[in-house]
Design goal:
Layout lengths: L2 H17 L3 H21 L9 E2 L5 E2 L9 E2 H9 L5 H14 L1 E2 L2 E2 L2 E2 L25 E2 L3 H10 L3 H10 L9 H4 L7 E4 L10 E4 L4 H13 L2 E4 L2 E4 L9 E8 L2 E8 L8 E6 L2 E3 L3 E3 L5 E8 L1
Parallel strand pairs: 13-17
Antiparallel strand pairs: 1-2, 3-6, 4-5, 7-8, 8-9, 10-11, 11-16, 12-13, 14-15, 14-17
Helix pairs in contact: 1-2, 3-4, 3-5, 5-6, 5-8
Length: 297
């Protein structure tokens, strides 16, 4: 489990405790989160990205000081998703992801691949370079990259990452993907492999769920919350907008998003059934059908 995902878990725990009127529980979670945040800042920032791990013998994994496995995807994206990273760190580490891990077929788990590293130091070396944990592309992690970029407002890059691993994007180049065109695969060979883009182990993956979650909740920005339905898209700047129908708590919302200035993110105004809605949260109205119009800035 990544430390940054614990940060996220403790944050959610504190929010639930507040809802349940248990301030002691919430304070406990925030205290633990503060101590963990301090440790992450003291030990995990490598200057351009976050390290992956520190072994019992003191070996640091995922650092610029080593030749192989310098950077890992999961620690970067979860530092953003969890808010463990400062804004400056978030922008730096996601820039490093783009420079060092992005391929035309998806985001690699790590890079460069392990070739010389002994197996007792890193077992990923048992895989050929560009496959699975050895600088391969795991498809269920692609949604995390999309989520992190959307949280930073980078709609163009988020959509590029989404399309890179989207099965339908390969309909006219099936010879590259070599997998059913209607299903996600677990792993894709990266550019370190002599067969980049080949996808294997179809069906056995969480990629489909994360692709749906990241596309609907972060790109389209339709976020179900306790107090209502939030509409806060982060889309490609080339889009004129989009339409969506969302069923939420026995109501139907017919949503039209307009992007006249071709931005990625930022709701300027929202109207539901002819009335202005303050902010981006539609209040709960059960058992009805609503027309929602949203304009980006």
């Amino acid at each position: 489990m990544l430390p940054s995902s614990y940060v996220w878990g403790l944050t959610v725990y504190s929010e639930i405790a507040e809802r349940l009127n248990k301030p002691e529980e919430g304070a406990w979670a925030l205290d633990k989160r503060g101590k963990l945040d301090a440790s992450i800042q003291a030990c995990a920032w490598d200057g351009g990205w976050f390290i992956w791990a520190i072994g019992e013998d003191g070996t640091v994994y995922g650092t610029s000081e080593v030749e192989e496995g310098q950077i890992y995807l999961n620690t970067q994206v979860w530092s953003v998703i969890s808010s463990a990273a400062s804004r400056d760190q978030a922008e730096h580490c996601m820039r490093s992801v783009h420079e060092k891990l992005a391929t035309p077929y998806g985001l690699m788990l790590s890079a460069p691949p392990f070739v010389k590293t002994p197996i007792d130091v890193m077992r990923a070396v048992v895989f050929n370079p560009g496959i699975k944990e050895n600088a391969g592309i795991f498809n269920h992690t692609q949604g995390w990259g999309v989520m992190a970029e959307c949280m930073l407002g980078n709609g163009d890059r988020a959509y590029d990452y989404f399309r890179a691993s989207m099965p339908a994007a390969y309909n006219d180049r099936a010879e590259i993907r070599q997998c059913e065109p209607y299903v996600q695969g677990q792993t894709t060979y990266s550019t370190y492999s002599p067969r980049p883009g080949n996808t294997r182990t179809s069906w056995l993956t969480g990629a489909a769920a994360w692709a749906y979650f990241s596309a609907t909740r972060y790109i389209l920005g339709l976020q179900a919350e306790i107090d209502g339905l939030r509409v806060d898209p982060c889309i490609p700047s080339a889009w004129d907008g989009f339409t969506a129908v969302r069923k939420f708590r026995n109501s139907i919302y017919r949503i039209s998003v307009h992007n006249p200035h071709h931005v990625c993110r930022g709701v300027d105004r929202m109207i539901m059934d002819g009335k202005n809605v303050k902010g981006t949260l539609i209040p709960i109205t059960e058992g009805a059908e609503h027309i929602v119009e949203v304009w980006l800035k």
